[in-house]
Amino acid sequence: MAIPVSFTSDQLRLTGELHLPSISGPWPGLLICHGIPAVPYNPDDTGYRDLAARCAEAGFASLVFNFRGAGLSQGDFDMRGWSRDLARAVTFLKDTQDIAVSRVFLIGFSGGAAASIHVAANDNRIAGVVSCAAPAHFDDLVEGPALRDCLVRWREIGIIRNPEFPEDIDAWAAGFREVAPLDHVGRIAPRPVLLLHGDADEVVPVSHAHQLAAAAGQNARLEIVPGAVHRLRVDERAMTTALEWLRQHGSS
Asked: For residues 145 and 14, which has the higher predicted lDDT (pLDDT)?
């Protein structure tokens, strides 16, 4: 069953869907965190919704939502703000009836995985994290002219809508450095982490996954998917591995 939902973060209205299992609760919870959009919003792209439905079939109350600036959610893309959005989403899900509050997990993709690692490191309400194609850092993005080039592209895509945003580009860039997963992943322990990455990732080199695994310590499991590219949510091997891991940790 899919239920349209909305909640607020920094006075911004964020939209999503809550997919509930057909079995009776209480259910483990799962938040599905999309990456930084690479194309304009397309309501016909149901990839994340389909994943939420699949996770609900596996027994997880699954919340898929749009971060600020994405989809039908309000606001402008901001990495630090995405972490605040996710923390609010965690509260929303945990306040939902029949959620097993000690078993709430995150699965994030690329930029959404970065936010997931950052939030989990600072929020003990999270039982574990599946990180898909996470960058270890955003150095290539925030140094030199790259960030201004990205800003132009993100305006074209539509995830930055206010022509006056950001008011301070240096402060905005600092948000990417603040959320950088390499600085936070080690603090998730002893809670479990699954790091999934494709060895043919054309956006985030696979070396980032190895850096994160080294920093995460023994609580982390690293899985490199041969031939997989950046969009791991459409790779059946990656998503099967993620679901098996979630079932293993979510059932206890």
From this structure: 14
In whole angstroms, give the CA distance from residue 249 to residue 105: 9
Closest CA to 196 of 112, 70, 121, 139: 112
Average pLDDT over residues 133-138: 98
Residue 246 has pLDDT above 80, yes or no: yes
User: In whole angstroms, how far apart are CA 11 and each of 8, 37, 80, 212?
Assistant: 6, 22, 15, 33
**Residues 89, 70 contacting (CB under 8 angstroms):** no
| Structure confidence at residue 77 (pLDDT) | 98
Q: What is the largest CA-CA distance in the chain?
A: 53
Residues 12 and 133: their CA atoms lie apart, in Å, by 27
Name the nearest CA neighbour of 132 among 103, 160, 161, 106.
106
Average pLDDT, integer, range 75-86: 98
For domain 2-250, the question of CATH label 1.10.357.10 is answered with no
CA 133 – CA 252 distance, rounded (Å): 26
pLDDT at 181: 98
Is the model's pLDDT at 144 over the cut of 90? Answer: no
**Contacts within 8 Å (CB) and 24+ apart, 244-248:** 245/130, 245/192, 245/194, 245/221, 246/28, 246/30, 246/55, 246/58, 246/60, 246/105, 246/107, 246/130, 247/58, 247/59
- Rounded distance, CA 134 to CA 111, Å? 7
Amino acid in the structure at residue 148? R
CA-atom Rg of the chain in angstroms = 17
Q: What's the pLDDT score for residue 25?
A: 82
